[in-house]
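User: Good morning. I'm curious how adenosine-5'-triphosphate would be positioned relative to this chain. Could you predict the structure with it bound?
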Amino acid sequence: MRLARLLRSHAGEVVAVFAFLVVQAVCELSLPRYMSDIVNVGVVGAETGNSAYLGHMALVMFGFCAGSLVAAVLTGLIASRVAAAVARDLRRKVFAKVMSFSPAEVNRFSQSSLITRCTNDVQQIQNMIVMMLRMVMLAPVMGVVAVVQVMTMGGGLAWIVGAALLAVLGVIAVLFVFTMPRFKAMQTLVDRVNLIAREILDGIMTIRAFGRQDHELARFDGASGDLRDAQLFVNRAMMLMMPLMMLVMNVTTVAIVWFGAHEVAAGAMQAGDMMAFISYAMMIVMSFLIVSMVAVILPRAEVSIGRIQEVLDVEPAVREAEHSTTPAADAPRGRLVFNHVSFRYPDAERDVVSDVSFSTAPGKMTAIVGSTGSGKSTLVQLAPRLYDPTAGTITLDGVDTRKMSLADLRSRVGYVPQQGFLFSGTIASNVAFGTDDADEKDLRHAIDVAQATELVTQKEDGLETAIAQGGTNVSGGQRQRLAIARALATHPEVLVLDDSFSALDYATDARLRKALAREQSDTAVLVVAQRVASVMNADQIIVLDDGRVVGQGTHEELLRSCPEYLEIAKSQLSAKELGLGEGE
Ligand SMILES: Nc1ncnc2c1ncn2[C@@H]1O[C@H](COP(=O)(O)OP(=O)(O)OP(=O)(O)O)[C@@H](O)[C@H]1O
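Assistant: Good morning! Here's the predicted structure, ligand included:
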């Protein structure tokens, strides 16, 4: 069983739990025997009223009670520890795996489902382990020993226990049939509530702007209501079980007393034995009850294990090289070469990037332009291996990027995504994010080149100014500049800017480009841009159309040779700005 596999690394503790359970079982199973003796001998037999005898027996029974109590407490402590440790290990494993996922792999599960799997599903497993260790292992031991006792004590009444067990099994079976599907669906329902909650919180501004709060609230209520219904149904069914079980137990007791009384009257059984018989019968019923209850609840934990396994089983498309290589020390730095590169998203029908070849050079700027959806972002995401090309190769300083270690590659390729993301912390912690050895001077320089100095000087706390989670307390343009500063602080060989100037005004955009050219003279810059004005001075411009390169050259060359580029340029700049005659 897969639950058992999770416990393998805690074998020692499991053995200790088992030992304490045996102690607990022995203590609890001994008590009815002593009770039987105390009644047979001390209440109605030879030692009636003998205080010394009764005191001795009471002391022995107290000893067994205390033993059982201590063993149960120790079992509980160890079981909780083991379960918490297994849960922590599982969370770590799942999270480490998720960190290696590409965006497509994250989307396959959805972010909220991955969070549910890391939290709620792990919790289900943790609960189940505690239950398994504390009760399930004890129940069969108790049950079997109690059955043996019952058989030896009063074979004539054993049929009552048999009938009670049939009744218990009947109740559990009915319950099983009705609750199982809902139990299994529970995790999916939790997932859905989390998904909707997350989506609504992420999109709260848009929802307010369009006045759709009521609509979204109703959507959330729907999912939440489904979860409530499932939980209510399952809990009610479980609650119903308790009184039914009490009924079975009470009827069993009455039956034992009824039929036992006849046996006692006939001299076939002693009164004390009848009482012990009742205790053992109850133990048998309880053991069956626990095992069956777990059989009902176990599938929910199994579903959770399955959901976690599903995440762990994913082979990330971008994998670490088995034997990583680094570029030779004397190799030219900043030469990123795309060699007939094509890329198709998983499960997509066609290539988003087809047969693209170009190379970057240190101190030079390569710009990618093209209409929206032409594959620009996808193309540059291949450089730091956020995805791997489906055909062709990408080399950096002469080494296939797939053969480099991911950490090495990503320290050489500084990537600034379209949506610059900031972490909660300070300006300094955000800019120093990609490097461990940047001092304040380095950080200030990176911030200066990224044209974000005024953001620091305007604030009272300077570099230590607090940044909220996601960078929500700075503007879009400020976020972009800090994201650029973060990449610059790592001194990359190739700086990849995915439309990272889009929120900047023209003047800042121009200053930033100039500063980049001046200060990063040995860095190759690969930039995706919507604005032709931003890239007019680039050393080479690559024009993408539907994932294909339709033009490659300088601004002037492309104006003459590439109709697609001319069209984009004309749509943004006047003929004068482009240096074209009015008639062209
Ligand atoms: N994760 C994804 N899974 C499947 N298809 C995707 C994914 N991301 C993007 N696409 C598709 O790939 C194509 C290119 O997208 P991409 O973002 O690279 O274009 P772009 O040129 O950068 O566009 P824009 O200028 O609007 O940012 C689009 O048609 C888009 O629908």
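Residues 103-104, 345, 348, 352, 370, 372-378 surround adenosine-5'-triphosphate (CB under 6 Å). The domain at 2-313 is CATH 1.20.1560.10 (ABC transporter transmembrane region fold).
Let me know if you'd like a different ligand tried.
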